[in-house]
Amino acid sequence: MESVAEEIVWEILLKLPTRDAFRCRCVSRQWRGILTDPSFIDLHIHSAHIIAGFGGEALVVTEIRSLRTGLEMAVIDRSSGKPMCRVTGLASWYRPTHACNGFLLVAADMKDSPVYVCNPVTGEKQNILPPPESEDVYSRRYAMGFIPSTGQYKLFRLCFRHYGGWPETWVNYMEVYTFGEEGGGPWRRHQNMFPYSMVPRVQRLPPVLVDGKLYVLMEGMENRWVPKPDRMLVIDVASEAHVTYRLPEEFTGENTASVYAFELDGRLCVARRVAKKQLVHFLVMEPPRIKLQDHKKGRSLYGRWELRYTFNIDEFGGSDDGKLSSAWLDNDKMLRYRLGESLYIYDTTKDDEWKMKNKKVGDFSWWDYQIQLPVAPNDQRWNVYGGYRPSLLSPHHLVSRRNEDGQEFHHVFGRNDDGQEQFEHALAHALRWKQSANKRCSTCPPDSDNYRVSAAKRLRVSITQYLINLLAG
């Protein structure tokens, strides 16, 4: 009977969402043992369809930093408006750089600084020591890749260096760390990668992982005096081969205010905001047709781009110069575009496939909702990282235990700041406005009390429904 009861518990827990399943570790020792069992975690990952490039959500991260206290980073759960976990104790030059499945990468553009792979659900983080680097490296960029066919993770480090003079003399390189017992570490260096630079404005843009390929915005050497991205570096995670594509010419001119890349329905999408015209274009790139392994290094190809949307963004008026912008498609199929403290929402489920394929320049789409976001305190900033899929997988299981030391997040607040807590709750409330989008046409979000459902209630409903189905069968 005990084995039958445990089997039923397994079936119940496998059907729970990741965050609710993690909370069940507090129910009993038996449940905690099940939820930390690697076999259960693997089954839960597959049952939740955690596959990079499809059905992800956006991870909301707020940051407060100072030289005295370092970085305080909160990962916000939009369903509750409260932090999933809070990171403290890192130096002020650390920042989140990339979300890959259930992990958030936190790194620093500093020599000899470890990289942290974090799981916001479990509150665990794993540090990876960087390899020795060349003396002339002036900037570093990190990304995490995933191979869907094998379930293997890799860590990529792009090092940018120059010898002075013109960019033609710049010799950058890539280093790769493979997670896991088999083939895990040390870092492997790929020499003479790409003669491109990395400016601070571009470095803040997170990489994009789509169908086993990493996409990274770059600045070409012809663009030396105008620091705007004009290249897309594509890295095949499995083979570690790469190819570079040029962005469309209109992306690189003076009329471009900002460029942001993200995943849209399994394809790379680039949002280009037009300066002084209050327009934003969304273009999707066809998957690379050539074999990356056969591509001649140093050449840039011209990819095939398809215009998907053109929107007007002048609803709230005023100048948009210097405002932060980002875009993401949430798992509710709502396309969201952030410009400063304004959030624009478009329901992609109403798209007509024929119209999308035959869209022409000048054809406009219209936002369904436009709302005002809360203003962040002076010492706080926030951003979203697409491609996140909650997972119970511990980052400690990714690396060899003999090489690294694992740590855990602080689940309690580093400080009790009412203003900070209020902002985080208001931000989560505004960003999760999807519940009301199909019911109300007002630009004002509804009362959150009508849509807040506790984790305990969701858990009771899930267990009750499962037992009813079990008895009925």
Give your account of this protein's structure:
The chain contains nine helices and 26 strands. The chain is α+β, with helices and mostly antiparallel strands and 473 residues long. The chain has a five-stranded antiparallel β-sheet with strand order 4-5-6-7-26, with no helix packed on it. Strands 12-13-14-15-19 form a five-stranded mixed β-sheet, with no helix packed on it. Strand 21 and strand 22 form a beta hairpin. The protein is globular and about 60 Å long. This is F-box domain-containing protein.
CATH topology (level 3) name of the largest domain: Methylamine Dehydrogenase, Chain H
> Based on the structure given, which CATH architecture of the largest domain is correct?
7 Propeller
Which bin fits the share of residues in helices? 10-25%
Low-confidence stretches: 401-405, 409-416, 435-458
Total helix count? 9
- Mean pLDDT level: 75
Strand content: 35-45%
From the helix content, strand content and strand pairing, which structural class follows? Answer: alpha+beta
Number of strands: 26
Largest sheet descriptor: 5 strands, antiparallel
Rg calculated over all Cα atoms: 23 Å
Shape descriptor reads globular
As an assembly, this protein is: single chain
What's the arrangement of strands in the largest beta sheet? 4-5-6-7-26
Provide the CATH top-level class of the largest domain: Mainly Beta
InterPro entries: F-box-assoc_dom_typ1 (IPR006527), F-box-assoc_interact_dom (IPR017451), F-box-like_dom_sf (IPR036047), F-box_dom (IPR001810), SCF_F-box_component (IPR050796)
Protein name: F-box domain-containing protein
Domain F-box: 4-44
Organism: Lolium multiflorum
